[in-house]
């Protein structure tokens, strides 16, 4: 029997023999050992380690390193997805009543511009416009030839009528906005999340799942309030076409100065420092859009990426960190963008309003009701296609790049 027990132990090392004495006889009883509990605990520890990998690395990274990671992510994202942002803004501005037409589609503009530099290519209508006619060397384009009928139509008409480079209209404002905004947003989110998780673990464990929601909302509010004037300039730059062919459209500072000069020339607006409030016109709508967006995004992203990283275990590397973060962020960003589209429509309407007095009086609720009365549910979701198509890759790029750079800096 002893030999059998030894053979069993050799063939099955996870089983161990135990000897006991019953009625004076030594009996060898083979039982399963609990030694493998160590492996179970190890697996659990590995899973928990993956869930807190980012927290550990955050604790060892300085604010400067986190800001550098975020700025690089914002730069890359702003360059790649700007055309979709332009398409979304054009569709929303058109729905708000902004008229898009060729600068030479009326007689006064043609007479002012007509000269030796005039090229027929600059005067042509879109081929899709069946109502276009030709008068001499000047193409007569009805206003409806310039109506946008969807995302791809926006791309086509901008490229044909304004040039390929106009798809990146407002990129300089986007970079000027994205780098400081994300540089504030993501590091502050890390700090708030780590601090809140530590506080809730000790005092209110049941509140821990809501930490990403609160941390994301706080971080986004801070970033939005700090950089809002640049967001105002970017939206205006993307919404309005240049009125003169051959003339460079205004940049960020010229756009903001134009807003301020219009305020100073309006008698019913207070002079002095109070007039600069116009630069924060629509910030309430922006917060009403961005805070829910961040809350939805981070509440979806955090559990999803932790789940994906748990499949990798302790064998995580830069590629797995990139894949898990991009996948989770892409899904979370797309869902959040679709859910908050009506608030984005309201934000665009308030930002492109040219009457300073009306702009100061408008509220988010009033704007949403106005859109609802004009176009119903379809109006509230104007531009949802390019918005979702932009947000998914944008959030994916920003979060994954940020986390990969943090991972590399932490393991260097």
UniProtKB/TrEMBL annotation:
<dbReference type="InterPro" id="IPR023395">
    <property type="entry name" value="MCP_dom_sf"/>
</dbReference>
<keyword id="KW-0472">Membrane</keyword>
<dbReference type="InterPro" id="IPR045315">
    <property type="entry name" value="Mtm1-like"/>
</dbReference>
<keyword id="KW-0999">Mitochondrion inner membrane</keyword>
<feature type="repeat" description="Solcar">
    <location>
        <begin position="320"/>
        <end position="408"/>
    </location>
</feature>
<keyword id="KW-1133">Transmembrane helix</keyword>
<comment type="similarity">
    <text>Belongs to the mitochondrial carrier (TC 2.A.29) family.</text>
</comment>
<keyword id="KW-0677">Repeat</keyword>
<feature type="repeat" description="Solcar">
    <location>
        <begin position="207"/>
        <end position="307"/>
    </location>
</feature>
<dbReference type="GO" id="GO:1990542">
    <property type="term" value="P:mitochondrial transmembrane transport"/>
</dbReference>
<protein>
    <recommendedName>
        <fullName>Mitochondrial carrier protein MTM1</fullName>
    </recommendedName>
</protein>
<keyword id="KW-0812">Transmembrane</keyword>
<keyword id="KW-0813">Transport</keyword>
<keyword id="KW-0496">Mitochondrion</keyword>
<dbReference type="GO" id="GO:0005743">
    <property type="term" value="C:mitochondrial inner membrane"/>
</dbReference>
<dbReference type="Pfam" id="PF00153">
    <property type="entry name" value="Mito_carr"/>
</dbReference>
<dbReference type="InterPro" id="IPR018108">
    <property type="entry name" value="MCP_transmembrane"/>
</dbReference>
<feature type="repeat" description="Solcar">
    <location>
        <begin position="61"/>
        <end position="195"/>
    </location>
</feature>
